Every structure is written in structure tokens, then in C-alpha cells.
Amino acid sequence: MLSVSEAQSRVTDLVSAARRAGADAADALYICDASTDVRIRLGQLEDVGRAEGEEIGLRLFVGRRSASVSSSDLSAAALAALIDQAHAMAREAPEDRYAGLAPEDRLMTGPVDDLDLDDHAEPEPAALRAAALAAEDAARAVSGVTNSEGAGASASRTRIALATSHGFAGAYGTSGYGLSASVLAGTGGGMQRDYAYHSTRHLADLDAPQSIGRLAGERAVRRLDPGKLASAPMPVVFDPRVAPGMIGHLIGAITGSAVSRKTSFLLDALDTQVFDSAITIVDDPHRRRGLRSRAFDGEGLATGARSLIDRGVLTGWLMDSASARQLGLDPTGHAMRGTSGPPGVGTSNVHMLPGSLTPQALIADIKLGVYVTELIGMGVNGVTGDYSRGASGYLIEHGEITGPVAEITIAGNLRDMFRALTPADDLVFRYATNTPTLRIDGMTVAGG
Questions:
Q1: Which helix (H) or strand (E) holds 391?
Q2: Which of 10, 217, 328, 425 is most buried, judged by most C-beta within 10 A?
Q3: Where is the Metalloprotease TldD/E central domain (predicted)?
């Protein structure tokens, strides 16, 4: 695998070559990754996979016309052909008055911050196999577990480099580790499945295999013999495993592209109260060892922490340069991209600040409600905010979580759901997007 400095040289050389060949402007993105995955099922090795690859992408501008091309062949001849291909495509492309590189005065300057994203560990496949086996053994040891879908362990290393023809060049490396287990409990038509997993940047931060396996087994057993639920309006409480989806719907609605196309249910909500005043949601790309941390975005702009929601108020849109030009605003450092196309928009490490109540106190006054641990389907309308999804989880009766329920539907409108949302105090930074346990009153629940 190339070093970070070598990766940066790859993209700066390609951009320079594109300019010498006559491009008015260009940028290039290089991604190199190597990963090892081990799968275990019923105590036996099921699969070992090793993948290595590198790809470089070039975006080239001729006036307001542009084209994006990519190649996994990084030989001198292939890169020369890549430039020629990009030129030919750009000359035939339609003009786009919003196209172009990011504003030069907004580019990140200085060295790339060290966000501690790479621990440089390279565990052997045998160590990954032992971890997966230990996780599955722990899950299968839970009384009531009757079968296994398997356990897996993975390790990866990545190099990312970006350069633009107007002065930006940066690169960084990451490592990544994952461990998961999925098992079944019960027999016949009454079998229930559940899982547990953990992903980290540093191997030392990964949960113990026994903890992951035991949690998967206990979750599966707890879901046995689900009951029925009569249809009615009631409070719905979202487990931290699924609660981040609420933030995902918010992010989809505040991207510049959705706003410029007028396809967002929050189109008229800028600088208004969208959530209760107790709610603040933060995007923090500089969290050390964060799963989506980065010092610069996909166009070379400096990144920084910002509140997407500040005490309930929507503070702004998330924009790359193209969508910012469409809206007559400035880009926000949220450009995301792959090697084969222009930038889009995405967030980094997002979290909702915790509330003041424990999860137990949050549900204490609920006479009848649902605690959701799994969501099914994608029944969300981004234009209207209408929300309807299949779900399963547990009954809440008289302030206590009781028996499991399955095959229910929860419905509402995201505008109403956001305003009715209350967070607990149990925020843990475990995923790329993190929330505490969330309660939303007044949702419509349809029983199975």
C-alpha cells in the first residue's frame, strides 16, 4: 500500500498533467484500500476474503463543461489515456453554469490534522478467525439460541488523496475493524433472529468478542413469542440502534440538492424551530478516531464542527460548491465523492446531544407504548415528510418494557415527529451517527 505522501503525489501529478494537456481546471481523487474478512458459521470457517485495490478519478473542466472518469490502471499510458478520454467527454458535455471547483479562498491550507484514524495494526487472518469464533461461541452458549447465521471479523486499511488545480493537495490514511454475530433462537415458525456488531478505527477500541456474541444471543432469545398489539396512537421509543435513522431523514431534507430541486419537506424551515428547544444536533468531522472523521471534504474545503440543529432551530443547508452556487450561498465543507463522479453532499460524525432523563424515566409515564429495536422498509416521503415503516421491538406497559411485539407499523409525519421528540441521557459514541434513546409521542401504531 502506498504511503500517504505517495498517494498525494499520485493526484497532484495527474492534475498537473491534465492542465498541461489543456484543461481549464481539474481535480483528482485517489483511493487505495486493502481488507481481510473472515466468516465463521457453526464453529467452522466459512470464508476468508482478501481484497486489495486502488482507483484514481479525474474531473476535468473545459469552460463550464466537465467530465468525470476513473481508472484502476495507474500506469503512465493508462493515465494519459484517461486525460484524453476526459477531454473528449467534456467537449461534448452540456454547459453547466453551476459547475466548477470549490472557491479558492475556501480551500483548506496548511497540513492535514492528525485525527488518529490509523493505528497501523495488521491483524493476521488467524487472529480474525479466533475473534469471530469466540463471538459465535458466546452467542450460541446463550440458553435458547438454536442456530447461527454466523459471525464475522474484518480489518482494513485505506489511503485517500485529493488534489485540485487551484492549489489544494491533501491525503490521509485510515484503519477499520469490525466484529459481528447473528444467531437464531427458538424453533420452527417461531424462530427469531437478532445480531450485535461493533466497528472502530483502532483495533484496541473494538468490543470483546464474548461481549458481542453474548449480546446477540440475548437479543435473539428476548424476541421469542412476540405478541399482538391493537392499533392506536401511542408513544414510540426508539432504541439507540435504530434512533439515528431520525437524523438520517433530517440530513436528507437539508442537503443543498434537495433544497434546490424543491424536494424537501423542510424547504421553508430555514432558521425556524424544527425540534423542541432542548434539541441540538452536531456534525463533528474532527472527532479523534471517528468513523467518518476527515480534515477536508471532497472538494478540498476545510471541515469543522457545526450545529445542524441549535436548540431546535435549523441553522442552514448542507452544500457542496455546485448546490451552493444554485442557491446563491457558500459551500459548507460537506462535499462527499467517489472516484467516478462529481461531488455530492454528506455528513461526518453526527450526534444528538443527550437529554436530562434516564431511559427508565423517559418511559415511566407511558401506560401503553412501543419500544422499537428494528425498522423494516423505507416508507418515507422526502417531499411531504410522511413516515410509515414496519417495526418490531417490545411493549411498554405502565412504564416498564415487557414482552416482544413484531409485524407492526409505525406512522406519522416527520415534521410532527421532530417537534414531539425527546432524548434520554444515554448518548454513547458507537456509530457514525449517534443518538440517545428517543421518545416520540402521538405516533400511529398499527398492530400485526
A1: strand 386-397
A2: 217
A3: 121-224
